[in-house]
Amino acid sequence: MPWLLILLPIILLFISLYIRDNVVRTYILPIAGTSHLASLLLTLWFWHQPLIVNWLNIDALGSWILIIISTLFFLLSFYAKAYLCLHQKNDNRIFIISFLIFLSLASLLAQAQHPGLIWITMEAITLATAPLIYFHHNRRSIEAIWKYLILSSVGITLAMLGTLFLAYSANIENIKGPLFFNTLINNAKLLSKIWLKTGFILSLVGYGTKIGLAPLHTWKPDVYGESPGVVSALLSGCLTTCAFLALLRIFAILVAANEGHFARQLMLSLGLFSMLWAMIFIIKQTDIKRMLAYSSVEHMGIIAVGIGFGGQAIIFALFHMAANALIKSVLFMSASNIIRCFANNKLSYINGAIRRTPISAWLFFIGFLAIAGIPPFTIFISEFNISIIAICKTHIIIWSLFLILLCGIFLAMSSTVIKIIFGKPKVNRVRNNHKDTIALTAPIIVTLFLSVIFGIWLPKSLVKMLQCAACLVDGQI
Amino acid sequence: MCNIIIVLIVLTNFGIVTANRINRIIQIVIIQGILLGLLPVTMGIWRHNHILLIVCATIITKGYLIPYLFRHATRKLKLTKELTKYISFNMSLVLCALGTGFGLFLAKRFFLINYDDYHMMIVIASTSTFFSGFILLITRKKALMQVVGYLMLENSIYLFGLILTENMPLFIEMGILLDLFVGIFLMMIVIRHITATFNSIDTRYLTELKD
């Protein structure tokens, strides 16, 4: 069953290579999304605790990440199909191949139980998603793909050094056998402290580059700004979740080795720094997608802060990953619709979107309110609960900084968003034939609807899965 | 014997950092790749069967395939032979030496399994290659040099991984090598597109996106 999740997209990839027609080939994406989600639900229905530790295992943390990736991919695949049909002159073969390889590798990463395997998969995901950024073949996107490749690869190399340091900390204490996470957590108290802590710092920097924590996030605005909306949604929803999984597995080893305080302090400081940096750069931001990229940096900071608080906050940080993935994709998809109708990213060209593309503009506005934390959306649950735990557990300076930064970002974003949505469209704007169609807006509405449902109610089994996943991150098995 | 190879690797770092022409750099990269491939054999861990496979794969990839990609790019895209850099030849040399010195300092501070054996020398060589890679990455103006810098970073990771070779599973080593090759292949394709768009691979043209 676990192999099915990894091989299914590859099989569909080979099928898509034989399809000549550009439009017919795009149907592969929704088929892949639906079949992957169906097989995941089937796998989880028949899941039981694995008896032996293996290279690939589905545990609670992995299955939560798999659910996020699969659901988001399912929703994005329908939008991607409509998007590719709009851009029929571009050859979409590489786009579809990259999308499917990403899904397969992300499924592999969520099930990997060895730090080396996680690293290889993470690097492969970086390389597989790179061609997606270059879909439009213009000067700006070539700069974006170059920055993405160099920054991500160098970051990932540092993460490998961190993984090797981790392995050396086990080697020095003569812990034999393939170093699965289970083995490392069981023997965590024996591991050499200095190698372990240095390894964690390097992994934090390395995987933090992929997650997008400041000051390692510099590729994010460029890449999210220049790639198609659906690609930005995929990167911000799925890729960051995968990278966080890699980081959390190593975090769990540190907590089990009684170095949890050290690790949590690092996560907390990086998280707050990311939120501060995001706030500074969202103020007076004139490009919609770059603003959303900084918002993504902010939310990664919130997740890191949640992990940094520890205890119950970890459950809500994990929930925030899913919440952020859903709402960010709403924002990116509707922003993509708006930008297409105005033919430009910049604020000076876009005004009064509510008259030109009413549905997308409303969805963008509701998405903005949702990401700021309005009930009944999912982000409200996670941010509210993380704030409560912060007030109970930490010093007044830390939680007040957290709340002030949240407010500040909302204020900074709202000025840009209101200018985009409301107002009168300029007389000399670019006029084209693009408008809101069902195919381009239905996936966004479904995603928003899902976010409302999960903001009000979560199935008991998912709640239990979240609690087990939080236990795993806390270093207990 | 293995000490000699480690010292030669550190010397190739100095060579790459101070070379002025792309052809010279590619030649030294080939030498470094072959030396890295031969290191496990001289370390005496060729008893395990899979180490020979790793040795062959490393020599072929780092000694032939990747430099072939660089040469192909240099010839096809008619890149100018002279290198442009932000800091001078002397400064690069000094920084590389400082990096190697920092490696010596680190190797003493960190607790290693056994000091008499090759572990300490490998940590020094690894840190030296690490810092040389960063010097190339940061201070060179051509995009191709950034790829060479990335290759040197990966070489430093490989060097450090040699301490753990006995415990490192085969397919992880192979996976790392494959990722490196595919990564550099992809970067070469992007460099081809950059040359087609901008008519040069000077990274000063890639500064349009900013806040």
What can you see in these coordinates?
The complex is a heterodimer of chains A (477) and B (211). With 477 residues, chain A is mainly α. Helix content of chain A is 77%, strand content 0%. Chain A is globular. Chain A contains 20 helices and no strands. In chain B, α1 (2-18) runs antiparallel to α2 (22-42) and α2 runs antiparallel to α3 (49-76). The termini of chain B are far apart. Chain B is globular. Chain B has helices at 2-18, 22-42, 49-76, 89-109, 119-139, 143-161, 170-198. Chain B has 211 residues and is mainly alpha-helical. Chain B is built from seven helices and no strands. Chain A binds chain B through residues 114, 116-117, 119-120, 123-124, 126-127, 130-131, 134, 137, 139-140, 142-147, 149-150, 153-154, 157, 160-161, 164, 167-168, 171-172, 176, 178-179, 192, 194-195, 221-222, 225-226, 281, 285, 290, and chain B through 110-113, 130, 137, 143, 146, 150, 153-154, 156-157, 160-161, 163-164, 167-169, 172, 175-176, 179, 182-183, 186-187, 190, 193-194, 197-198, 206-209, 211.
Largest interface: A-B, 46 and 38 residues
Order of helices and strands of chain A: HHHHHHHHHHHHHHHHHHHH
Number of helices of chain B: 7
Mean pLDDT of chain A: 90
* Gyration radius of chain B, rounded: 17 Å
Secondary structure: helix percent of chain A? over 70%
| Unreliable stretches covering 5 or more consecutive residues of chain A | none
Distance between the termini of chain A: 23 Å
- Mean pLDDT of chain B, nearest integer? 86
Q: What percentage of residues of chain B falls in helices of 4 or more residues?
A: over 70%
- The ordered string of helix (H) and strand (E) elements of chain B is HHHHHHH
Please outline the major beta sheet of chain B. Answer: none
Assembly classification = heterodimer
Shape call of chain A: globular
Task: Assign an overall shape of chain B.
Answer: globular
Unreliable runs of chain B? none
Tell me the number of helical segments of chain A per DSSP (H or I, 4 or more residues long): 20
Distance between the termini of chain B: 53 Å
Helix/strand structural class of chain A: mainly alpha
Estimate what percentage of residues of chain B fall within beta strands: under 5%
